[in-house]
Amino acid sequence: MSSNRNQLMKELQAVGASNAEIEDLLPIVSKLGQLSHGRTTATVEHASPSYWPRVFRPAAFTLLGLGLGVFLIVISQAALPTSMLYPAQKLSDSLAVRVDPQYRAIVMMKRAQQVNQLVAGHASSAQVIATLNDYTSEASVYRSSPHADYAAFEFCETNLRQAASAASPTVRKAIFASLQSLDTT
Fold first, then answer.
1. What is the DSSP string of 11-26?
2. Which of 22, 68, 76, 159 could form a disulfide with 88 if both were Cys (CB 3.0 to 4.6 A apart)?
3. What is the rounded CA–CA span in Å between residue 94 and residue 83?
4. pTM score, two decimals?
5. How many CB atoms lie within 10 A of CB 112?
6. What is the C-alpha to C-alpha distance for residues 166 and 105, in angstroms, rounded to an integer?
7. Angstrom distance (rounded) from CA 131 to CA 31
8. 80, exposed or middle or buried, with CB in 10 Å at 0-12, 13-18, 19+?
9. Where are the domains positioned within the chain?
10. pLDDT (tens digit, 9 = 90+) per residue, 9-24?
């Protein structure tokens, strides 16, 4: 017991306790060692207060991460190609198409609308043409699908023709080339 007492004194001195404090703390600290012998960590109702945070912290961070991910996907759906959220939109759209190939029609219509919005917002020709290329590739794949919907192509053609009417000559030419390549005119 004396060696245990000496060890406790050394530890208390190491953390900065004065001699008077050590004398007051020794009886308390020595009893703490006795308390831990009768407890098992498997008994949940006797677990220390720090047990629950250790258990739930990883779960809370996982749920928080999933929640933020879903929030990011939801708000990215309204993003234009000029937004920093556009890559998240494209990624979520491609994943949705893998899950449900018929979702490609929605993606195709969204890209046609984005071309129109970019032209109306006076975006750069390069940005408009890049989005038009995204539309064209989606439309090409969708056209060959067995469930291709004529109404979806009509919607896209209307948006693209509206964009062409306000676009620069370079963009107008690219829009008409896209429409012609898909034979929707």
1. HHHHTT--HHHHHHHH
2. 76
3. 18
4. 0.65
5. 30
6. 25
7. 72
8. middle
9. 2-38, 81-182
10. 888 788 888 888 878 8
